[in-house]
Write a structure and sequence with these properties.
The protein is built from three helices and twelve strands, in the order E-E-H-E-E-E-E-E-E-E-H-E-E-H-E. It is of the alpha/beta class. It has an eight-stranded mixed beta sheet with strand order 5-4-3-12-7-8-9-11, with helices on both faces. Strand 8 and strand 9 form a beta hairpin. The radius of gyration is 19 Å and the shape is globular. The model is unreliable at about 1-40 and about 230-235 (pLDDT under 50).
């Protein structure tokens, strides 16, 4: 583990100042991409339902070793789901999530240094990408830092404004009302305590956030899946 760093951040999701203490993720380049032919059922999902993109990305991570032997999380924004895996690709748990109000895949530059009141609804995005994550704190709670500089984290669902109805949205059976946050990922408190904390305690890990506006291959170094072309029978053109 790297030395613990203490820093002060002018974060926009919890107020003007957020004091953090977290283990800095280790630097390093991910392995070279692998071809679509190597997509195998390495990831073991147990009985959890998952989207096709979630399955494809999870299998690629396990097949390519992109997680570098670390636990990893896959966040499906379209399905509003969070999947947590151990370092060998075995699922440890899944839960619904609340995500950024605005749809999009790119973080607004410098948003981590802005105050909450200055963030427009169109800027409240949960960005897509690959992030090195670690447990930490702000002034109010412990959380999983996904991108410290951007003040992007995964944490227990907060109450927020009464009109937000965050707990009710999280408990609803569809993902259509799960877009409400300023960009952070909110999960049920029991899931955070029983799955996120044990998975990341004493280690860093990787968080993959699936895109919703672009294909997977535009965000992650995956080979495009092969498509079968059907040959027209003779005489029909």
């Amino acid at each position: 583990m790297e030395p613990v760093k203490i820093s002060v951040l002018q974060g926009w999701r919890w107020g003007p100042l957020a004091l953090t203490a977290w283990a800095m993720p280790a630097a390093g380049q991910p392995p070279a991409p692998v071809s679509a032919a190597t997509f195998e059922a390495h990831a073991r999902f147990a009985d959890q339902a998952a989207s096709n993109d979630t399955l494809r990305l999870t299998n690629w991570v396990s097949a390519s070793g992109d997680n570098r032997g670390l636990p990893f999380v896959i966040i499906d924004k379209i399905g509003a789901n969070v999947f947590v895996f151990d370092a060998r690709g075995k699922i440890r748990g899944a839960a619904p999530a609340l995500l950024g109000l605005a749809r999009g895949d790119d973080q607004v530059a410098g948003i981590g240094q802005r105050k909450l009141a200055t963030i427009r609804p169109s800027e409240r995005i949960t960005p897509a990408g690959r992030f090195e994550a670690a447990l930490g704190r702000d002034l109010e709670q412990d959380l999983l830092w996904i991108d410290y500089d951007a003040a992007l984290s995964l944490h227990r669902v907060i109450v927020g404004k009464p009109a937000d109805r965050r707990h009710a949205r999280l408990a609803s059976p569809t993902p259509f009302d799960n877009r409400i946050t300023f960009g952070c990922v909110n999960v049920p408190a029991q899931f955070y305590d029983s799955t996120i904390i044990p998975t990341f305690k004493g280690t860093v890990g990787i968080v993959y956030i699936l895109p919703e506006m672009r294909p997977l291959e535009a965000v992650f170094p995956m080979a495009a899946p092969r498509t079968r072309t059907r040959q027209a029978p003779l005489g029909s053109r």
